[in-house]
Each structure stands twice: as structure tokens, then as C-alpha cells.
Design brief:
alpha/beta, 2-enoyl-CoA Hydratase, Chain A, domain 1, Rossmann fold, N-(1-d-carboxylethyl)-l-norvaline Dehydrogenase, domain 2, 31 helices, binds (S)-3-Hydroxyhexanoyl-CoA
Length: 733
């Protein structure tokens, strides 16, 4: 016996025992496992990812690749091997793919594998294998079937969804299209219009909606596995011809100019994003081309997207968002339970924060300074929910339930019972210190105190309390009930249990938390000050607000810096830069505060936030330039973008060097979710890698030669260049 055969025999025997003893399965199951096992060299792992049970001639395959059943190469190969084995096994009459109750059906293809070459079996292989199998294939969908997971289910003949399951094709969020036959199968099941809506919005549908649409055949109220087996037995008994969704008729086109109209619409709505247009091309191909040509076309479009920079940026953003929540010294289990939240200040920010909490099931008590303001706060909240009801976004009963969990008080003592109290008062340090002291005096021992400061010294704020370990910063972005970013500020005394609680609360609020250290402006605002510093440089050298905003919007930001500054309020900029005398100070001194005063870098008509170029603003800029003896220069759009982005990158490097952010990808998450950095460009740090760190270095050096104090270059950049490392992969040891 050769050593290879000997090893294989030994492993076969162990595997046989493992299956038989551990899982109490029949000899037949074990035989299948051994068939699978013998198929390749590394089947021990593969078999673990696909477990098989014989249910009276129905092979039930459990996809078993925690935590989300991502269809990695190994599990794809397992599935293919099984399908091939079932073809020759006459005992197998039908096949059910499902999962045990703890696992979802599948989150789709393994996104981690997309950066390397595509290897192993893929969706077209599944299509051919199931076609050749010619036995009913049923998918039993638990929790969710997303992306490639749903595509796989749509290749088989039937789909059964558990009543709580959601089904969707969210590939566009990763800069992709469903490239595993999804753009051809889904329209054949639900039509072109619904397919376009489902794919382009990336929104999954419920099991009930999927049934109505014809995406699934049965909804299982309780026992998913039993429902699948019952369906399999029925199909076997009926012995009707089997029709795969891909073999159904081509879908009809809703109207003759349907695709033209959608292309025109998408040009505006998805400006800068590549996947939506390619999706339209695929759906058109689905409706007009024979199956084999439509499938090849889909593959081409998918490959064009997956090999492009945009999808790389969006995939990086996907993983960066998840990585941001992992803090090495913080254990999830240490988080305290938070149910009742106190908020100090019921203004725009405070009420936005209150809504964010109420909407996720928390009870909120808000503190206001007077009964008049308390009444105004309640009214504002009622109005918001009435609006949601009138727009059919919420049922009246739901709105009432949310409002019943919201109270406004003028007695600070009413906050004493809260698990977490967040101060959201005006950005004045003295005021915040006074409030924190009072809260510390009245709140229970376990209450966590948080400040919503957007950049004041959290350590100073924590130091006035007797519980600095239970103080942290929760910097919400306005409007707090909408914006997903949350900077979670870790002070020098913040305990890991307090931080764990902050991260858990963020997760409950469905926010994207990023942990940052203490420095003026933390990460996001500290970088934006540098961006605004260069905005001023450009304005003083003759670039108009409109030109600058146009250049940045063409790069992909939804808003230019002048529009953004006007929206936030120029006075905020002045408060945040005490002791300085800049162009913005001139604007504020002349009463131009931005949108709130209907005048800033632009003019605004009453009742509208649409910016109009302003002669008065231009006069202020010209006067300031003249006072400082600055002459106009010719600066093109590319140079504008380069300068503004270099300002972000340069400051981001210092922030990393100082340990204020622990990873470069955390900075990117902040910029994508809080400042509108185009997600398909990954974030400023990822973008720096794409431009090339050498190029960035020489650009920074050029700027430095004009203004050495403004452009200090972090030594980290030189280290990364010397070590040939990527900035986006940087994390502090
Ligand atoms: C596709 O299918 C292409 C095909 O059309 C064509 C191919 C030819 N792959 O989010 P969570 C990880 S494209 C790899 O924290 P939740 C995630 O990184 C795919 N890993 O949990 C995290 O890891 P870690 C289309 C994945 O419960 C862990 O799983 N599908 C994948 O809040 C838990 O994730 C999608 O776009 C994946 N596909 O949310 C779905 N999915 O613990 C993308 C997740 O190390 N996924 N991970 O940080 C999601 O939307 C959410 O993760 C999901 C779970 C809703 C599934």
C-alpha cells in the first residue's frame, strides 16, 4: 500500500467514525461523506462545511460555514461535489440545501476572496450540475439569503423561506452586480421592474413579500426542514417536469423606452457609481438575449466591475466598517445593559439623539432648561412622528409607542435613574463642565456619563466627575437620527467596560462606531479644519466657491466644502478656531453665518437651501486677499481636489502617528460615513494608496515649500514608503 493510500484509508476510517458516532447518521450518509471525501485531498474541512443527512431518499445538505455561510471556495467545491455524487446515487430522489437553526442560509460569495484570482467551482458550474442532476433541488432559507446565497437558491428548482427570512441581492453596495446568474434568474421570477428595484437599492425583501412576488414557493411558519421535505415528497410524487428558473421564459420589458429612461435617471441619481449602469445592461440582456449569451454577458460585466478600483474601494469600506468595532482590549461581555437614556438639551442635536434611541426601543428622558422649551421639544418630536405617519413611513400605533417612551423634564433629578446620560448642550466647555458635575452628583453609581462634544477636551470633562472611568464621548453627527457615524471617544480614564457599553449601544442604534482618542476635533473635525484651511487658501487665490464645490463634487463628494461650511454654520468654524483671524471670521463679523442667516459663501432665498453665487461674499473674499497682499492664481479643478485631499491625508497621518485613531481604515470609515467621502474611493487613506504614497509625499513637499508651518509631514509617511507598506493597512501595534 502506498503511503498516500494508507493515509487516505486511515482518514476515511476516522471520517466514517466521526460521521457515524458524532452525528448518529446512517451508513448511507457516511458513505456519501466518504465519496465526497475521496474526491479530493482536503475533504476533512470540506465535509465539515456541508453535512448530509438522508431523509427517506431526500438528501438534506446543511451548509455549515459559520458565521454567515459565506460561499468560499471550499464550500462551493463541496456543493459541486455533492451535486455530482447525487447524480449517480439512485437512492437520492431529491436534494434540499438548508442550514441548522443557528445559521443563516448564506450571506453570498466570500467577499474576502474577491481580491485574488477566482478559483474553484462557481455559479455556472452549479447551474450545469443541477441541470445534469435532473432531480428536484430545493433551498430551505433560514435568516437570510443574500447575494450569491440567493443566486444559488434561484438556480435550484424550488425555494422555501422561513417566515422570518429576508432575501436580497446587495452586490451593488459592494460596487458589483449579482454576477452568479442573479441578473438572469431574478427577472425571470419577479419581472424586470421589481428586480431592478431590489438590486439597485440592495434592500432585501421579507419571506411574505418574496412569496407574493413569486421569488419563493412556500413560506415555512415553523419547521423549515419539515416543510422542505414535504415539498420534496410532493414534487417527487407529482413527477411533473422540472423547470429551473433560468429555463423560464424571458421577462418582458415594461415599456419600449424603459431602459433609456432608467439610464437617464441613473446618470443623475447614481452619479459616480459604475454598478447601476452595468446592472441595467444585464437586465436588458436578460430580456433580449438567449440564455447562454445573457449569462456570458453578465459574467463580463461582473468581471469588469470586480477588477475595477470602485468595487475595491467599496469592499475595503465594507470590511473597514466591521473592523472598526473590534478593539483589542475591549470585551463585548463587559458591556452594561442600557435601557433608559437621559439627554441633556432638547435642541436640534439633543432631539435627534433622542429619536435615534427611541426608534431602537430605548426609553428616553430629556432635560430642558424651562417648561417652554420642554413643551417645544415635545411638540417638535410629535411633529416629526406625525410627518413619518403622513408619509406612510410608520403606522400611527408605532409612532404612539415611540412617543410613549419619550419624556421631557426640567428637573435634573429625573435623570438619576438613567443607565446612560448624554449631554448635548451648546459647545461651551464651562457649560459642559457644570452639567457633568451636576449629573455626577445626582446619578446612580453605575450610570455612564457621555458628552456629545464635537471636539472639546473629554479628559477635562471627565475630570470634574468622581467617575472618570465611567465617562466617554459619544459624538453623534447631525441629524443624529439619520447619520450612521458615531465617534466613540475614549478618554485617558475611560474603562474598557464603559467603552464596551458605548460600542454595544452604537450597535443597538445601528450606527457605525469608530473609537477615537482625545484631541481638539477628534478625528473627523480635526481633519476637516485642515481641509477648510486649504479651502480658504484657494478662495483667497481666486477660486470661486462654485468652482471649488464643483471640483469636489465631480470627485464624488455629495457636497462641496463651501456648501458644507454654510450648512454647518460658519460661526461653528469660528468657535472651533479661537484666537485665529481668518476669512471666515470676516464672514461671521459681517453677519454671514451660512444657511441659518441665508448668507454665507452663498446666498439663500427664504425657505430654500439652494446655494446662489453671492457678489457680497466675493467682495469679502477679494478684500481679505487684498489686505493680505495675496494675488490671484490660475488653479484648475484637479489642483483644487489634490490640495484639499492632501490636507486630509496629511492630517490623517499625524492622527495615526499620535494614536488618536488606531487604524488608517478607521479614519476612512469616519470620512465615508460622516463627511460624504465617496465610498467607491474607499476613504482618504485608501485613496492615498491608490495615488501612490511617493506621489503624495512629493505633493506635500511642494505645499510645504510655500507654507512650512501649515504642512508638517508626519514621519509615518516616510516609514511606510521606506517599508513599501500600504497606508490603508496601517494599524498601531
Ligand atoms: C456576491 O455574492 C457576489 C455574487 O453575486 C457573484 C459571485 C460570482 N463574505 O456584518 P457582520 C463577515 S457578493 C465574507 O458583522 P451582521 C463580516 O466581515 C456578496 N465575509 O454581521 C464579519 O466578519 P468579522 C453579497 C462576510 O449579523 C462577519 O461575517 N453579499 C460576508 O451584522 C459577521 O458579519 C453581501 O453583500 C461575506 N459575504 O450582518 C452581504 N458577509 O466578524 C454582506 C459577512 O471578522 N454581508 N461577512 O468582522 C452583510 O450584509 C452582513 O454581514 C450580514 C450579517 C447582513 C450578512
Amino acid at each position: 500500500m502506498s503511503p498516500f493510500v494508507a493515509i487516505e484509508t486511515l482518514i476515511n476510517a476516522q471520517l466514517y467514525n466521526m460521521f457515524y458516532e458524532k452525528n448518529q447518521r446512517s451508513v448511507h450518509d457516511c458513505a456519501i461523506a466518504v465519496i465526497i471525501f475521496n474526491y479530493g485531498r482536503f475533504m476533512l474541512q470540506k465535509v465539515r462545511q456541508c453535512q448530509v443527512k438522508n431523509m427517506g431518499g431526500i438528501a438534506v445538505v446543511y451548509l455549515d460555514h459559520p458565521p454567515v455561510n459565506a460561499l468560499s471556495r471550499s464550500i462551493r467545491d463541496d456543493i459541486f461535489t455533492l451535486l455530482t455524487a447525487f447524480k449517480d446515487d439512485h437512492a437520492v430522489k431529491a436534494v434540499v440545501f438548508t442550514t441548522t437553526p443557528d445559521l443563516p442560509f448564506s450571506a453570498g460569495a466570500d467577499i474576502k476572496e474577491f481580491s485574488g484570482p477566482m478559483q474553484g467551482k462557481f455559479f455556472l458550474d452549479f447551474y450545469h450540475a443541477i441541470k445534469d442532476l435532473n432531480k428536484p433541488v430545493i433551498s430551505g432559507i433560514r435568516k437570510y439569503a443574500l447575494g450569491g446565497g440567493l443566486e444559488f437558491a434561484m438556480i435550484g428548482h424550488y425555494r422555501v423561506a422561513h417566515q422570518d427570512a429576508r432575501l436580497g441581492l446587495p452586490e451593488v453596495k459592494l460596487g458589483l452586480i449579482p454576477g452568479g446568474t442573479g441578473t438572469i434568474s431574478l427577472p425571470r421570477l419577479v419581472g424586470i421592474e421589481k428586480s431592478l428595484d431590489m438590486i439597485v437599492t440592495s434592500k432585501p425583501v421579507s419571506a411574505a413579500d418574496a412569496l407574493t412576488l413569486g421569488l419563493v414557493d412556500v413560506v415555512a411558519e415553523d419547521d423549515l426542514e419539515a416543510t422542505c421535505i414535504a415539498l420534496a415528497n410532493k414534487v417527487i410524487k407529482e413527477a411533473k417536469p422540472l423547470v429551473m428558473p433560468l429555463h423560464r421564459d424571458r421577462p418582458s420589458i415594461p415599456s419600449p423606452d424603459y431602459f433609456e429612461q432608467k439610464r437617464a435617471l441613473f446618470l443623475d441619481r447614481y452619479h459616480g457609481f459604475k454598478a447601476p449602469e452595468r446592472l441595467l445592461n444585464c437586465l436588458e440582456a436578460c430580456a433580449t438575449l438567449p440564455l447562454d449569451q445573457a449569462l456570458s454577458f453578465e459574467t463580463e460585466q461582473f468581471i469588469a466591475l470586480i477588477t475595477g478600483n470602485d468595487s475595491a474601494g467599496m469592499r475595503y469600506a465594507f470590511f473597514s466598517e466591521r473592523l472598526a468595532a473590534h478593539i483589542p482590549d475591549v470585551r463585548k461581555e463587559d458591556a452594561r445593559t442600557v435601557q433608559h437614556v437621559g439627554i441633556v438639551g432638547g435642541g436640534l442635536m439633543g432631539s435627534g439623539i433622542a429619536m435615534a434611541f427611541i426608534n431602537r426601543g430605548f426609553t428616553v428622558t430629556c432635560l430642558e432648561v424651562s417648561q417652554d422649551r420642554a413643551d417645544a421639544c415635545i411638540k417638535l418630536m410629535q411633529k416629526q412622528y406625525e410627518k413619518s405617519v403622513s408619509q406612510n413611513k410608520m403606522k400611527d400605533t408605532e409612532a404612539q409607542d415611540r412617543l410613549s417612551r419619550f419624556k421631557v423634564t426640567v428637573q435634573i433629578e429625573d435623570l438619576s435613574v438613567c443607565d446612560l446620560v448624554i449631554e448635548a448642550v451648546f459647545e461651551k466647555l464651562d457649560l459642559k463642565l457644570e452639567i457633568m458635575q451636576k449629573l455626577d452628583a445626582i446619578c446612580g453609581e453605575k450610570t455612564i456619563l457621555a458628552s456629545n462634544t464635537s471636539g472639546l477636551d473629554l479628559n477635562q470633562i471627565a475630570a470634574v466627575t468622581g467617575r472618570p472611568d465611567r465617562v466617554l464621548g459619544l459624538h453623534f453627527f447631525s441629524p443624529a437620527n439619520v447619520m450612521r457615524l458615531l465617534e466613540v471617544v475614549r478618554g485617558k480614564s475611560t474603562s474598557s467596560a464603559t467603552l464596551a457599553t458605548g460600542l454595544q449601544v452604537a450597535k443597538q442604534l445601528k450606527k457605525v462606531p469608530v473609537v477615537v482618542g482625545v484631541c481638539p476635533g477628534f478625528v473627523g473635525n480635526r481633519m476637516i479644519f485642515k481641509y477648510f484651511e486649504q479651502l480658504e487658501w484657494l478662495l483667497l487665490r481666486g477660486c470661486s466657491p462654485k468652482q471649488i464645490d464643483h471640483a469636489i463634487k465631480t470627485f464624488g463628494f455629495p457636497m462641496g466644502p463651501c456648501e458644507m461650511a454654510d450648512m454647518a454654520g460658519l460661526d461653528i468654524w469660528v468657535y472651533s478656531t479661537p484666537g485665529q483671524q481668518t476669512l471666515v471670521h470676516d464672514f461671521v463679523a459681517s453677519g454671514r453665518l451660512g444657511q441659518k442667516s441665508r448668507s454665507g459663501f452663498y446666498d439663500y432665498k427664504e425657505g430654500s437651501n439652494r446655494p446662489h453665487p453671492s457678489e457680497k461674499a466675493q467682495i469679502l473674499i477679494d478684500q481679505s486677499a487684498e489686505k493680505q497682499n495675496i494675488r490671484p492664481m490660475k488653479i484648475d479643478d484637479a489642483a483644487i481636489v489634490q490640495r484639499l485631499l492632501c490636507a486630509l491625508i496629511c492630517e490623517g497621518l499625524h492622527i495615526l502617528d499620535e494614536g488618536i485613531a488606531q487604524r488608517a481604515s478607521d479614519i476612512d470609515v469616519i470620512y465615508v460615513h460622516g463627511y460624504g467621502f465617496p465610498i467607491y474611493r474607499g476613504g482618504p487613506m485608501f485613496y492615498a494608496d491608490q495615488v501612490g504614497l511617493d506621489t503624495i509625499r512629493s505633493q506635500l513637499q511642494d505645499y510645504k515649500s510655500e507654507a512650512p508651518k501649515q504642512w508638517l509631514i508626519s514621519p509615518l509617511l516616510d516609514t511606510l514608503i521606506a517599508e513599501k507598506k500600504k497606508l490603508s493597512g496601517y494599524k498601531r501595534a
